[in-house]
Design goal:
Blueprint: H1 2-11, H2 31-45, H3 56-59, H4 62-73
Helix pairs in contact: 1-2
């Protein structure tokens, strides 16, 4: 999870990713940032994020992104 937080902070340094739970709904992450994030996650964690998984509920918080990564690792 710490590495995920680091990646998020590199993309958007002004957001508190540990507590924010509306990253998409609050417009903290835009579509280009999400594409960059997906690429970083795939490279760092060795998972492939299918297009159908790129939905707001999977990216609204660091916790939901981490849950997605763990689910894809299985």
């Amino acid at each position: 999870m710490e590495r995920l937080i680091e990646i998020l902070e590199e993309l958007q340094p002004d957001v508190d990713f540990r507590t924010t739970e509306n990253l998409i709904d609050g417009r903290y992450l835009d579509s280009l940032t999400i594409l960059s994030l997906v690429a970083e996650i795939e490279e760092e964690f060795g998972v492939e994020i299918p297009t159908v998984e790129i939905i707001p509920s999977n990216f609204n918080s660091a916790k939901s992104i981490w849950a997605l990564i763990k689910r894809l690792e299985e």
